[in-house]
Amino acid sequence: MTGDEIRGKVVEILGQVVPELDPSELRADAALRDQLDIDSMDFLNFAIGLHKAFGVEIPEADYRQLATLDGCVAYLAARIKAA
Amino acid sequence: MASFLLPKLGADMTEGRLVEWLKKPGERIERGEVIAVVETDKANVEVESWVAGTMEKILVEPGDKWMPVGTPLAAIRTDGVEPVAPPAFAQAPPPSPVPAAPPAAAPSGPALPGERLRASPAARRRAEALGLDLASIRATGPDGRITLEDVEHAASAKPAARPPADRQQRMREAIATAMSRAKREIPHYYLSTVIDCAPALAWLEARNRDRPVTERLLHGVLLLKAVALALREVPELNGFWVDGRAVKSEAVNVGVAVSLRGGGLVAPALHDADRQTLDELMRQFQDLVTRARAGSLRSSEMTDATVTVTSLGERGVESVFGIIYPPQLALVGFGKVVERPWVVGREVVPRPVITATLSGDHRATDGHRGALFLDAVGRLLSAPEKL
Fold first, then answer.
1. Is the pLDDT of residue B150 over 70?
2. Which residues of B touch A (CB under 8 A)?
3. Cβ <8 Å between A40 and B290
4. Quick check: B199 pLDDT over 80?
5. Which of B184, B248, B260, B328 has the smallest number of Cβ neighbours within 10 A?
């Protein structure tokens, strides 16, 4: 899976959690929580979406690595490669 | 035969629009089954039937017409069993721009401003259901008594339709009406306490560490369960203010304030929160928040809350003193978990703490009972494994 494919899937999952998401306005290096006004329940649903889509387990201790879109892509790429 | 009325789905609801029928005439209806979808100022709500029976006749077709609460929508042929009354919330008086009408005992004579009103019990119930102020109804009965016909006449004179407005504006208006009424009628008192979160957070971290993401708990669920159990200890805070007195609720149905995307909020109920395991409560909480934000709640969830919990900690707020949601008796608030110096034994150490607050109705309880409640919340959170 390429980085762009991972990025596209992550944005798609974000869109399921935040239906009003406009991908063109999403800054890849800025905190998702602040950009999208997501709370802990949204974030948990996002993590569940990533888990189901990519088949990787995401320990709670790793949540901070998912703070930005770039962070999500890097983290998931590494997890998929290690799997 | 039972009338299926447009229900009151919250203190801030006076009108609704029928969106869809899910039952046709002749079809079987179970008690608690969703039979219609109604639009309120806040959401589309799936409305459940309080009786079992058969759909006899549909009186109102879905459409653009906004109708007052209490409008008969359908007739249901019941199974011969006495209908179970809807919860106290649904029976509570609607928001009104003036103090609620006085109770039934009243002197004779025409209803003049400032005087107590005479009305038949049926007329009084119907006026409440329709959201009409008795003082605004012209009486034609003996001795100036307001009759059922007078109420129906007044209801028919009300405009059936209203100017179109977007839901956001209508929601703000509904919240404004309910909260203004609450501030005007409920003598609030406010308490706060700071709770050491270290035991709860440590327990939660250990519990979530080896669980897949689909089985994890949020800290908020521990707070909700602690509130529910503390309400068992101080039940005077759990219930409704109805007809001039506090009515305790046996069930502990915790309303959770959920902010909606685009603004506004709803506070649907987590039923029997005190009796559920943390895992069960988490699943119900997750489902409830998801459906609240998708605009897909059920009528019982909108009407059954016996207390409300709000948390603004995720946005950095350290404490919140909320307005009680009528006709409930209390509102509990939680702020952000912050690191603070804390005395443990003879040492000052950094500890994660949270500020818990209580807004109480002074007509129902005093600060002493409120303080016992907050103390119980703190004690329960200090032993999370027992929640």
1. yes
2. 205, 208-209, 212-214, 216, 218-220, 259, 261-262, 285-286, 289-290, 314
3. no
4. yes
5. B184
pLDDT digits (tens, 9 = 90+) for B164-191: 467 778 888 888 988 999 999 999 999 9
**Which of B34, B8, B10, B31 has its CA nearest to residue B21?**
B34
CA of B267: how far to CAs of B125, B303, B325, B330, B386, in Å? 26, 9, 9, 13, 27
Smallest Cβ distance to A40: which of B208, B214, B218?
A: B218
Question: Per the structure block, which two tokens stand in for B314?
Answer: 């995720």
* Structural contact between residues B68 and B15, judged by C-beta atoms closer than 8 angstroms: yes
Return the bridge partners of B198, or none.
none
Angle between helices A40-54 and B278-294 (to 10 degrees): 100
Assign B148 a pLDDT band (cuts: 50, 70, 90). confident
pTM for the structure as a whole: 0.78
By CB neighbour count within 10 A (0-12 exposed, 13-18 middle, 19+ buried), where does B162 fall?
Answer: exposed
Is residue B315 within a helix (H) or strand (E), and if so which, with residue range? Answer: none
How far is B209 from chain A, CA to nearest CA, in Å? 7
Q: CA nearest B376: which of B210, B170, B153, B223? A: B223
Listing from the earlier edge strand, what are the strands of the sheet with B2-5? B2-5, B72-78, B53-58, B28-29
- The better pLDDT of the pair B116, B274 is held by B274
Whether B109 has a pLDDT exceeding 60, the answer reads: no
Task: Say which of B216, B259, B261 has its CB closest to residue A60.
Answer: B216
Q: Tokens in use for A62?
A: 């790793």
Residues 6+ apart with CB under 8 A from B229: B274, B376, B380, B387
What pLDDT, on the 0 to 100 scale, is given for residue B296?
A: 85
Give the mean pLDDT of B348-356. Answer: 97
User: At a CB cut-off of 8 Å and minimum separation 6, what does B178 contact?
Assistant: B10, B11, B12, B95, B325, B326
Kindly state whether A59 is in contact with chain B, defined as any CB-CB distance less than 8 angstroms. yes
Q: Which H helix or E strand runs over B46?
A: strand B44-48
Which are the contacts of B8, defined by CB distance < 8 A and separation ≥ 6? B69, B70, B89, B90, B91, B92, B94, B129, B303
